[in-house]
Every structure is written in structure tokens, then in C-alpha cells.
Amino acid sequence: MTRWRLTIEFDGAPFMGWQRQDHGPSVQQTLEEAVERMTGEEVRFYAAGRTDAGVHALAMTAHVDIEKPLDAHRLREGINALVRPAPVSVTEAREVDDEWHARFSCIGRRYLYRILNRRAPAALRRGHVWHIPQELDVEAMHEAAQALVGRHDFTTFRSVHCQSQSPVKTLDRLDVERDGDEILVHAAARSFLHHQVRSMVGTLSLVGRGQWTKTDVSRALEAKDRQELGLNAPPEGLYFLEALYPDD
Amino acid sequence: MTRWRLTIEFDGAPFMGWQRQDHGPSVQQTLEEAVERMTGEEVRFYAAGRTDAGVHALAMTAHVDIEKPLDAHRLREGINALVRPAPVSVTEAREVDDEWHARFSCIGRRYLYRILNRRAPAALRRGHVWHIPQELDVEAMHEAAQALVGRHDFTTFRSVHCQSQSPVKTLDRLDVERDGDEILVHAAARSFLHHQVRSMVGTLSLVGRGQWTKTDVSRALEAKDRQELGLNAPPEGLYFLEALYPDD
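^ Those are the sequences you sent over. The predicted structure of the assembly is below.
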């Protein structure tokens, strides 16, 4: 048996999310079926993060155990041939030891959220950005974001379906910057709650519109109450950027 | 009557190209039908460039004459609402004088060609790049590209369907650079022949693979013979970037 570490890029649009679902296609199922066709083995993928329906990944990390002897090149090319036409692509494959775990060994996760901030709707970037036509105050958004950085109880910014044991997380970074006609939000933490990034971005968008202040964001955080959330941003602007491991 | 200058972004995937065709949807028809529904007038769009099927535009410039009094904001928002769900978006609209012509007043055109140069196929960028899995020699491509810069008879790099009066064009710039896992080709000229950018990029890809040298590129150019073309690159990597006018 070999444990393989894979780096995976995917467009979230056609999927119900990373995790297997009864009611629609998932990235996990797409990958598992490809490996099962290659090897004849029943396999299971474990990922650093379980993204929602519509959320994209530039470099998701996952692992899978395979009995059949394979080399990294053949595994990667085989999966990429078999997943077609699904928009999933394995960009890297390498052997890791049996103790290594894509989820439990992960010590950091980075997300990017893209807002298209111009009057005109997206054409080339449709499905890949959240379109907000009103001009947003990026400096106010960045300033308000700093109220969320650090160790906090993020209950306000947590989905009711979140399965995390504790709502207390340490947010290492939440930066907001303008890049041409887009506003980029960069988030980094050891781990995130379910819907945390989208909930934070949605709330910051209210600050950008001038409807909320940094004080309102702090108050919502301190309330520890999902009802105090400003807004949950849509999935199509969110990208899982990368997972960090001690051995990297 | 007011002449309107419009800047238009579009995803070329669902279109037969810019120009009206009997056998499928075009960007021109999509825009004309939107304005006709807004105004009740039969209108005609003229563009700086007539892109092929599958070719994208970040900022195509076009003009249209409209009798009905409108302001720029209403025109842009109206078209953007009416073209849906087609991936076309008017990013700017402004009045110009009756002498101004999107095609004939244009003094410069810029194109970008994106090659995804990694083993793994595109996932997020599917339909927006040309995937070449073999590692390309970018420096050799850039060096060979310089053989095409300047005033030449580009018959070799011209579609047999090209309607230009003369095959002689002055290529101002053809730069090749690596940007992460992509190779970007930047092309600038007063005007281009039909298929010229794709023909030049396809030929440079052979240089990148080590199959052709700069001398082969020069020889193909000097042959003034379409049969000597190395390869025509596919449309999905090509973007019309912008059109330049004396008054800008």
C-alpha cells in the first residue's frame, strides 16, 4: 500500500462541493471513481478542506491509499484522463509516509475571495467572482477586517451545519486589497469554521457599502450569535488557495 | 442621432465570433438585438476587430448609432440586462462625434495569447488557455518572435479567408514571457491579418518545443506561402485586449 499526496485544481461550478453527496456530483466522488477505474480498488480520498457547492480550488491537497504499484507520473496522468470532462485536474502527485494525513497533518489553510467591483457584470469571469456593482470602500473593509484577526469565538460567522468541536479559531490574516476592477480578500488560519470565510467577506461587503462600521463588525463578533451576521457571500467568489504542512 | 462608443468584454466560447453569421450566434447579433429591444430601432455595430469563433475580448471597442435619446449609464445598463445570459458585458459607453469610427479611426490593436504550460490540463481556466503539456523554451520563443517584428509581407501567417487588401503589415511588438504556469504572448500592431496572431503563436510553439529554430521562422515568413506555416494555434487562448484611438 502506498499513500499518495495529491494537489488538485477544480472549478466548483458543477459540483455539490468536495465531499460525497447522495444528491449530486462531488469532487471527491469524481476522483475516487477515476482511481477505482485505474486500479480496481475501492479507495477513499481525504482532503485538507471540505469546500461547499460552487467553491473553487487552485491547490487543494488530498491523500489516497492505493495497493496497486504505480508511479507518480502515471497516477497523475491516469486520473487527469479519467476525470474528463469534469473540470478537475491533478497538478502534482507524490508518495508520503503512512502517518501523513491531508486533513490532520495540515497546519495552515489559505483562501482567496474575489469580488468584481464595477458597474458591468462579469463576462469572462462569470461564475468565478462575486459581482458587486456599487463602488466599495476597500480601505474601510481592510480596517474592519482587522477586528476579526486573532483568537476569537467565531460563532457569528459559523454555519448552523458546522461540525467543528469548538467555535474558537485563530485567524492569522484577513487582508483586503484592490486589484484593477477586483477586490481580493486573503484569509489565512490553521483552520476555519464552515462558512467562516464567506460570512466574513459578506459582512465586510456591508462595511464597503458604508452600511456597517468596524464597530458593528466587532459587535457582531462579540455577540457570538449567527443571527447577528451581516451577510453570507456567495460561493462562486471563493477559492481554496493552499494547505500548509510541517514537512513543506 | 447619437454615435455611441462602447467597450465590450466577452467570453468567445458560445459564439461563432464577433461578426453576424447565418449558422450561429455572434457577439454582434447579441448586442444589436439588445439595442433593438431597447430602442425599437434597427441598428448596426461596427467593431475594431472581427474576432473568430472562440476568441475572447477583454476590451473590444465598437460603435453604434442610435436615434432615441439615451444617457450613457442607461444604455450600458440596458444592454447588460438584455444580453443575459450571453457572456457579454458593456464596461463603458460614451458619446463620440459622427466622424468617429471604431474600425477606421483605430490606430492600434493589442492581443494577448495565453498558453497553459504544465503537465496537468486546465480546470479553472478551461476554454481560456491553450494547454501544451511539454515544457516550452520561452526564451527561444521570444527570440524567434523578433524575426516577425517590423514591416513584412505576412502571407504565410494569413488565413486563406483573409479579406485584407494587402498582406503587408507592421508588427510593432511580439513578446513572449512566462507568468507562473502560463506563457503569455503579447502582440501589438496598427492592424492584423485574419488568423495572424494565432498563426504566429502556433509557429512559435514549435520553436518552444525545439522543433523549429528562429531561422525556420524567418524562412517561413520569407516564403510568403501559407503552406509554410508551422501551426495555427487554437482560438480559446486568444484575447482581444484593446483598441487604441488618436483621441485617447
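The mean pLDDT of chain B is 96. Residues 108-244 of chain B form a domain with the Alpha-Beta Plaits fold (CATH 3.30.70.660).

Shout if you want it in another format.
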